[in-house]
């Protein structure tokens, strides 16, 4: 059928006496649900030829960005809004960038109820062209709300929308980086594949529940998968993920615990951007706690060509893209509030074996693009016809927890030295009791795989209370150099490891 704005407004006016929509009015089908049934569905689907969901009608796909943004979900029509539950759900319409809808179900007492599409749940803020609604139309995803900040207001804390993307925030934060259910061939010259969460099951929460559960079916030309997310909103917001993959083909380039973020510039590359702000980024570094117990910090970069870095490891203890810069003056942006973006820390459940934390950095000239991806890449391929189960915890918040207590890198500055020939690298380490009052016994250990470096100098930084390690780099004929630095005292490491790829 065809829906015009005039007819839609008339319909909304006719129903305005009942502003709160009960979920039951949207139900189109019911069926039993369990995680075992989800696993069997993914297993069976993997044995069939890949078939994507139908495209939504063309007028929805061809909407302009401005017109699409006129369609906003009305929170009064949220699922469970009229019930005494600690969880509420809002829906997003498919359209524009999301051209194939996801099926969304709510689950209670082992029964899954499929939500039908209803455009009257949305507020239309302005004039729109005629938009058809047929059986291919649906939702692009959803957001969940609970009393995360105050006891009397339901705020959103996690969003599932687009491919296998989702993102969450902790108490008092704003959205920043995103996670993915699975990354396939990221950065590969053969092209990346983006699996979809095609079906969701959101469990109804009972009175007093603080952990909420979402299940998802993943489907792509290369694999299917069954995912479960147990989500506890707070500070941090914790998401425990369990998943099983059923490859259709041999998967040789898989990314587990994948996340994507934005890094435009900071003190390392500020000279390349004519911008009123000091820094622009959702994340400023990759943090790794490797299987050997080393704590590693790799500042992010915005390269001029795609750069891929592999940090080989065995049974990683954790990794994540972090936003360490929390001083508003380091950004100077009163609208974006980058200092309030979350970090995302991944803690594997069990042993993940050999592989590498892989970092993909993509050139970008605008902050609207996510250009940084990080994930765990297993060394061994996942073979077609097999099943692979894994799990991990995600902490969305300001900092990673549970790591060795060492002074961390708070800032990296890179630029020409006083002679305008060499490059000067200055690494600030945050204040810490390990430094003590007398820093004369602290020794820098700095290495480079090309060029030459000066002997590092360690100084107290009066503005931070920590210490600064500075050294000169002479690239000579090298166009890229891998740098490593750490502070030691009495032959014992007293700081995390700083790694950086310098590129001419």
Short summary:
The protein has 504 residues and is mainly beta. Among the domains are: 1-141 and 193-248, Beta-galactosidase, Chain A, domain 5 (Distorted Sandwich), CATH 2.70.98; 409-503, Immunoglobulins (Immunoglobulin-like, Sandwich). It has 4 helices and 37 strands.
- Known CATH architecture of the domain at 1-141 and 193-248: Distorted Sandwich
Total beta strand runs: 37
Q: Provide the CATH topology of the domain at 1-141 and 193-248.
A: Beta-galactosidase, Chain A, domain 5
What proportion of the residues form beta strands (DSSP E)? 35-45%
> How would the global form be characterised?
globular
N- to C-terminal distance? 59 Å
Q: Total helix count?
A: 4
Q: List the uncertain runs.
A: 1-21
CATH top level assignment of the domain at 1-141 and 193-248 = Mainly Beta
Q: State Rg.
A: 25 Å
In percent, how helical is the residue content? under 10%
Oligomer description:
single chain
Largest sheet: 16 strands, mixed
Structural class: mainly beta
Mean pLDDT comes to 93
Tell me what you see in this structure.
This protein has 504 residues and is mostly beta strands. Among the domains are: 1-141 and 193-248, Beta-galactosidase, Chain A, domain 5, CATH 2.70.98; 409-503, Immunoglobulin-like (Sandwich). The protein contains 4 helices and 37 strands. The strands form 6 sheets. It has a 16-stranded mixed beta sheet that branches. Strands 4, 9, 10, 11, 12, 13, 18, 23, 26 and 27 form a 10-stranded antiparallel beta sheet that branches. Strands 29, 30, 32, 33 and 34 form a 5-stranded antiparallel beta sheet that branches.
